[in-house]
Amino acid sequence: FFESDSAKPLRGRKVLVTAGPTHEPIDPVRYIANRSSGKQGYAIADALAELGADVTLISGPTRLDASQNVTLRAVESAQEMLVACEETLPVDAAVFAAAVADWRVNNEASQKIKKQAGALPDLSLTENPDILATISGSVSNRPALVVGFAAETENIVENGKAKLDKKGCDWIVANDVSASTGTFGGEENQVFLLKGASTESWPKQTKQGVARTLGAHISDFFQSKST
Ligand code: CTP
Ligand code: CA
């Protein structure tokens, strides 16, 4: 027993975190994306590494630098993010904080589409794979703990609970991303942690604060599993 073990409760645990938006190409210069700075996901990766976990951060394009003690895998599209997640399995826990684009263009142009007055490009959309639902439903490789996010602009808790069921994950961190909260790109977040029937409302705090609190819950989960 080492004295530092109490400060590193996730030592020996492998964790994956997704973060940032995905970019779905229309042509070589244009894409469809979600609004996401990546700050919350990067803060979670950091907090879990701080607790001793071996963290792989699978990130879409952001302006952020990953900290030295996490392994960064940079991806662009949802399909690439899913492949990177599958290649990172098996893990003990997975946190899906990425704002994945729900749709992609299925007729991506290999050359830049030229603008022509009065004529719109013929874009056809198809649904992206749901990474969280896919990993939650994995039969042979499901992480012991799967945590999703629910970015909502109204009925935060109800919509979050519906996502918990629909995605088959263990917990949902539901947050209010309506314009008035300043969540997008901002430094603070007000979230609810939904664990089955239980709902915890956390005070508004920095994204680092949310990350550390979530890290404490994840540590408790593994601590109570092993005792
Ligand atoms: N998610 C994912 N892959 C997708 C879409 C979403 O892994 N293709 C994950 C997100 O990372 C998040 C959770 O699913 O953890 C919920 O994402 P959200 O966009 O809120 O839910 P959707 O099911 O896509 O529903 P909607 O956008 O219609 O609210
Ligand atoms: Ca979505």
TrEMBL record:
Known role: Catalyzes two steps in the biosynthesis of coenzyme A. In the first step cysteine is conjugated to 4'-phosphopantothenate to form 4-phosphopantothenoylcysteine, in the latter compound is decarboxylated to form 4'-phosphopantotheine. Catalyzes two sequential steps in the biosynthesis of coenzyme A. In the first step cysteine is conjugated to 4'-phosphopantothenate to form 4-phosphopantothenoylcysteine. In the second step the latter compound is decarboxylated to form 4'-phosphopantotheine.
Reactions catalysed: (R)-4'-phosphopantothenate + L-cysteine + CTP = N-[(R)-4-phosphopantothenoyl]-L-cysteine + CMP + diphosphate + H(+); N-[(R)-4-phosphopantothenoyl]-L-cysteine + H(+) = (R)-4'-phosphopantetheine + CO2
Report the pathway entry.
Answer: Cofactor biosynthesis; coenzyme A biosynthesis; CoA from (R)-pantothenate: step 3/5; Cofactor biosynthesis; coenzyme A biosynthesis; CoA from (R)-pantothenate: step 2/5
**Enzyme Commission no:** 4.1.1.36, 6.3.2.5
Residues in coiled coil: none
User: What are the DNA/pantothenate metabolism flavoprotein C-terminal domain coordinates in residue numbering?
Assistant: 10-219
According to its UniProt entry, this protein's organism is Sneathiella marina
On cofactor binding, the record's note says:
Binds 1 FMN per subunit.
Which amino acid positions bind CTP, per UniProt?
A: D102, K112, P129, D130, I131, L132, F149, K163, K167
Keywords per UniProt: Decarboxylase, Flavoprotein, FMN, Ligase, Lyase, Magnesium, Metal-binding, Multifunctional enzyme
Q: Where is this region: Phosphopantothenate--cysteine ligase?
A: 15-227
Q: Which GO terms describe its molecular function?
A: phosphopantothenate--cysteine ligase activity; phosphopantothenoylcysteine decarboxylase activity
> Can you name this protein?
Coenzyme A biosynthesis bifunctional protein CoaBC
Cofactor(s) recorded in Swiss-Prot or TrEMBL: FMN; Mg(2+)
What family is this protein classified in?
In the N-terminal section; belongs to the HFCD (homo-oligomeric flavin containing Cys decarboxylase) superfamily.
